[in-house]
């Protein structure tokens, strides 16, 4: 009986953890880029879709492990 209780506690914890993970997961990349682009426009910096994509690629490349100066 105790083993069954432990199993249910484990499964309940896993379900709660999965639900919280979905709720607090980061936004999609496209949504994040749109938010960044909106913030930049509010500051007077206008980027085309291609410029934004290039900027994200450049930042991603610089943040990769082993490429830091």
Distance between the termini: 58 Å
Average predicted local confidence, pLDDT: 77
Uncertain runs are: none
| Envelope shape | elongated
Which key features would you list for this structure?
69 residues, 0% strand, elongated, mainly alpha
Short description:
By secondary structure, the protein is mainly α.
What report would you give on this structure?
The protein is 74% helix and 0% strand. The protein is mainly α and 69 residues long. The longest helix is centred in the first third of the chain and has 22 residues. The N and C termini lie far apart (58 Å). This is YtxH domain-containing protein.
What secondary-structure arrangement, pairings included, does this model have?
Layout: H1 2-23, H2 29-42, H3 49-63
């Amino acid at each position: 009986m105790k083993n069954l209780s432990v199993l249910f506690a484990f499964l309940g914890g896993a379900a709660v953890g999965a639900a919280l993970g979905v709720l607090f997961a980061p936004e999609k990349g496209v949504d994040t880029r749109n938010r960044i682009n909106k913030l930049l426009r509010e500051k007077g910096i206008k980027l085309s879709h291609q410029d934004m994509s290039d900027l994200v690629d450049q930042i991603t490349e610089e943040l990769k492990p082993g490429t830091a100066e």
